[in-house]
Amino acid sequence: MDKTPKRPFPKPNPARRKNNRTKKITSTISQHQSEKLQKVLAEAGLGSRRSLEHWIASGRVDVNGVPATLGARVQGSDTIRVDGRKLFRPPPGTARLRVLRYHKPVGEICSRADPEDRPSVFQRLPGISRGRWIAVGRLDINTCGLLLFTNAGELANRLMHPSSGTEREYAVRVLPWSPEKDSAQFSSDESSAGIKYDPNGKKNGIALDVIERLRKGVRLEDGVARFEDITDAGGQGQNHWYHVTIREGKTHEVRRLWEAVGLRVSRLIRIRYGPIRLERDLRPGRWEELSAWETAQLARSVGLGRLIGTPKLPPRKPRYGESGKPRKAFRKPPEDRSGSRLPPRGSNPTTRS
């Protein structure tokens, strides 16, 4: 008979103790993880990272009361001031991603302040408790249509950056430059800036070679630009519309492309930005918040799906028991009008004496 005394407790494992200590250290480091200063400023919607680097170099940004330098990193507990104003930073994981769809009318500007005191698109937006609304791109004062706003600077900068390749679709109506022909409809012998509208070779009122030239690319002052797609949207005469799609989003790119081939834009409406379209029932000057599905679709289109919190669903109960047989559904016994339980069918109720 073995009389070796048994240990009352299991022998401690030094490797397990080391792993627990490593987990604690890792969790502490993750809570105090630092980020680049220009990235934090860009997420707050103050501008692109490149422009914010100039702000830092010029001394406009302070961290904990000390002028910041290029390459500086900040933590969640640091206090950042831009031009003397404290920057609000929500705790990580608490800010909800929000996106607005706004129908910009003609006559409004996309700046917050204007020396001429013209109406701004920001005057019609709803109030926001934390942060501020950031415009995703711009539309000039004579252009109307879809304009997106978000409270996430990272999403706005990613959507506007040319590397994302986000498509912008516009509905455009073009006319010849010649003033005496602006009031006349297109005819077989009509020409403008060397463009002939031949009835046998025209497409949507514009010659096929002009359409092909706009698709292949036209050299502008800041490089070659082109339309990704040009489709006929219908209409007759001066009220003939086209749908054009671009990706880069240069300044006045749609207008300058048409001007390069001898035509001028009389109406320009943005109808789509990425996967988000301008709804027909959204009147000019009105806004609406995107649904959770549309917001997730927009964020994932530029690789920012991590900004969307996916709720965890409760685990489903197994349909079969451990023995492999289906579970029997539990049925609550019916009640009579007095509230007492009725006996199940086929049973003989016992009488009380």
TrEMBL record:
<dbReference type="InterPro" id="IPR050343">
    <property type="entry name" value="RsuA_PseudoU_synthase"/>
</dbReference>
<dbReference type="InterPro" id="IPR002942">
    <property type="entry name" value="S4_RNA-bd"/>
</dbReference>
<dbReference type="Pfam" id="PF00849">
    <property type="entry name" value="PseudoU_synth_2"/>
</dbReference>
<dbReference type="Pfam" id="PF01479">
    <property type="entry name" value="S4"/>
</dbReference>
<feature type="region of interest" description="Disordered">
    <location>
        <begin position="307"/>
        <end position="353"/>
    </location>
</feature>
<feature type="compositionally biased region" description="Basic residues">
    <location>
        <begin position="1"/>
        <end position="24"/>
    </location>
</feature>
<protein>
    <submittedName>
        <fullName>23S rRNA pseudouridine2605 synthase</fullName>
    </submittedName>
</protein>
<dbReference type="GO" id="GO:0000455">
    <property type="term" value="P:enzyme-directed rRNA pseudouridine synthesis"/>
</dbReference>
<keyword id="KW-0694">RNA-binding</keyword>
<feature type="region of interest" description="Disordered">
    <location>
        <begin position="1"/>
        <end position="31"/>
    </location>
</feature>
<dbReference type="InterPro" id="IPR020103">
    <property type="entry name" value="PsdUridine_synth_cat_dom_sf"/>
</dbReference>
<dbReference type="InterPro" id="IPR006145">
    <property type="entry name" value="PsdUridine_synth_RsuA/RluA"/>
</dbReference>
<dbReference type="InterPro" id="IPR036986">
    <property type="entry name" value="S4_RNA-bd_sf"/>
</dbReference>
<feature type="domain" description="RNA-binding S4">
    <location>
        <begin position="35"/>
        <end position="95"/>
    </location>
</feature>
<dbReference type="GO" id="GO:0003723">
    <property type="term" value="F:RNA binding"/>
</dbReference>
<comment type="similarity">
    <text>Belongs to the pseudouridine synthase RsuA family.</text>
</comment>
<dbReference type="InterPro" id="IPR018496">
    <property type="entry name" value="PsdUridine_synth_RsuA/RluB_CS"/>
</dbReference>
<dbReference type="GO" id="GO:0120159">
    <property type="term" value="F:rRNA pseudouridine synthase activity"/>
</dbReference>
<keyword id="KW-0413">Isomerase</keyword>
